[in-house]
Design goal:
Layout (H helix, E strand, L loop, with lengths): L2 E6 L5 H11 L8 E6 L10 H15 L5 E11 L2 H14 L3 E5 L7 H6 L2 E4 L7 H20 L6
Parallel strand pairs: 1-2, 1-4, 3-4, 3-5
Helix pairs in contact: 1-5, 3-5
The structure holds S-adenosylmethionine (SAM).
């Protein structure tokens, strides 16, 4: 199973790169997390948030592979405890499908793209900046994996 994080935003600050790398390198090959950055839409004074989101959605769509299980990261999505996340991840593994996790840009994800996702996952009821979401996702996926394999990291 492959896990891909398709995240709007490029040129992340060092602390984001470092934070994501810290957890990515701990993950085993069969639960590896790949990161694909999606260029944000150019926002001029005449660019509506809707137009920017649609452009970003097209860019994400170009990178999607057929048959992937799409999971949209949404503030209003379903909150999973770490144990529930580990259970979800166990299910993803058993299904044998690759996973694409979608993180929007400053204006969020295009609703039409979100509607195509099979799940909407909220990692907090707070609206978080998208660079921070990457770090939290990487840590939570690592934490879920440790729970799945009985590694003492999760307690
Ligand atoms: C700055 S937020 C966008 C805020 C936008 N108003 C919205 O409601 O989506 C950028 C992206 O980060 C992700 N995000 C932010 N907070 C989140 C949370 N608590 N749970 C899950 N994803 C979150 C979402 O993918 C969102 O599209």
């Amino acid at each position: 199973m492959k896990l891909r994080l398709l995240a709007v935003g490029t040129r992340m600050p060092g602390w984001v790169e470092e934070g994501v790398a810290t957890y990515r390198k701990r993950l085993p090959r069969d639960f590896a997390l790949e990161i694909e950055e999606i260029a944000p839409a150019r926002r001029g004074k005449n660019t509506s948030a809707d137009k920017a989101r649609k452009q970003e959605a097209r860019r994400i769509d170009e990178r999607l592979k057929g048959g992937e299980h799409l999971i949209a990261l949404e503030v209003n999505g379903k909150p999973w405890t770490t144990a529930e996340l580990a259970c979800q991840a166990q299910g993803w593994r058993m299904q044998g499908r690759d996973i694409a996790l979608l993180v929007g840009g400053p204006d969020g994800l295009d609703p039409a793209l979100s509607a195509r996702a099979e799940s909407a996952w909220s990692i907090s009821p707070l609206t978080l900046p998208h660079p921070l979401v990457r770090v939290m996702l990487a840590e939570q996926l690592y934490r879920a994996w440790t729970l799945m394999v009985g590694h003492p990291y999760h307690r």
